[in-house]
Amino acid sequence: MNYTLHQLKIFLKIVETTSVTRASEELNLTQPAVSIQLRNFQDQFDIALTEVVGKKIFITEFGHEIADTAKKIIEQVNEIDYKTMKFKGILSGKLTVSVVSTGKYVMPYFLTDFLKNHPGIDLNMDVTNKIKVIKSLENNEVDFALVSIVPNELKLDAEVLLENKLFLVGKKVLLDSKKKLPKSIFNELPIIFREEGSATRKVMEHFFNQNEIRIVKKMQLTSNEAVKQAVIAGLGYSIMPLIGLKNELENGDLNIIPVSGFPIQSTWRLVWLKNKSLSPVAKAYLEFLREEKAIVINEYFSWITAF
Questions:
Q1: Within this chain, do residues 261 and 271 fall inside the same structural domain, yes or no?
Q2: Domain range for 200
Q3: Residue 139 near residue 131, CB atoms below 8 Å
Q4: Do residues 244 and 99 share a domain?
């Protein structure tokens, strides 16, 4: 056997994409180059690794077995590279994180010092909606994802980062009294919702269903920022995560409306697929988080305890 690491990487990418064309695009190689390397790799086995039916490539059972072994080999090679670079005091590679939209107020603070300490690391952080975040996890496209509600449909490991408090907020206070308003106040207010599928929307709907509250007047917007601006403009009230409201509360653009049963609390968690083979960079980042997150929380998020 004279296969190379290059051939193993190409074959793994073909297995991952089930397409020579897509594999060549993601590897920044020409399609003929990928096809040649696949053929040279196949020539070293008496059993077929792939089958072509029509114009579609399929990976055989044997091909999947070889891919599993190839993945372990590549991981071991990466581990050697990591140990070598770590011994030199250098860590390099890519860290990929998918973040639900409100998480953009959280995740950067837990990344800053790690990236400063390791300038050789490239960060790819996708801030998107919850559905796409879960999809990227399911497809094993990212190292980590930041969520406030852990999806039940996936087996995940998690690292708790920060508490997540949600309040009813509005442009103006409803009463001068500091006493908490009854939950029935929601029957009288125009309520602004996030889009279907968002974690904040799920929290709101759970609260309303649990308390048998029927919302008569409602509006739906597709981002936390859009909801915030609509509330500031006086279009209605909304239940929003405290984490994204610091400046608006300090400036008086928004006010927390005291209501019985609030704040609603959840937790910001960094999650990843259970039994996932983390890259050296991902392992180093987890080590950093576990050692430094208390410092980050104290420096950037201590203000949350005041609410």
A1: no
A2: 165-265
A3: no
A4: no
The enclosing H or E element of 77 equals: helix 61-87
Structure tokens at 75: 């991981």
Cβ pair 255, 249 in contact under 8 A: yes
CB 240 within 8 A of CB 257: no
pLDDT (average), residues 59-74: 91
Report phi then psi at 270, rounded to 5.
Answer: -90, 125
* Closest C-alpha to 272, from 157, 151, 147, 159: 157
The token pair at 29 is 């190689």
Gap between the Cα atoms of 249 and 264, Å rounded: 18
Helix (H, G, I), strand (E, B) or coil at 197: coil
Given phi > 0 = left and psi -120 to 50 = alpha, else beta, which region is 89? left
Residues 167/237, Cβ–Cβ less than 8 Å: no
Amino acid of residue 34:
V
With a CB cutoff of 8 Å and minimum separation 6, the contacts of 32 are none
Count of beta carbons in the 10 Å neighbourhood of residue 57: 19
10-59, pLDDT tens digit by residue?
Answer: 999 999 888 999 899 888 899 999 999 999 999 999 999 999 888 889 99
We report the CATH number of the domain holding residue 216 as 3.40.190.10
The answer on 28 and 80 residing in a single domain is yes
Domain count, the chain: 3
Q: Which residue has the tokens 């509250």?
A: 213
CATH number at residue 64: 1.10.10.10
Q: Are strands 56-59 and 50-53 parallel, antiparallel or unpaired?
A: antiparallel
Q: Are residues 260 and 271 in the same domain?
A: no
Interacting residues of 184 by C-beta distance below 8 A, sequence separation 6+: 213
Q: What would the pLDDT profile of 177-229 be if each residue is shown by its tens digit?
A: 567 888 888 888 889 998 888 888 888 888 989 988 888 778 888 888 899 99
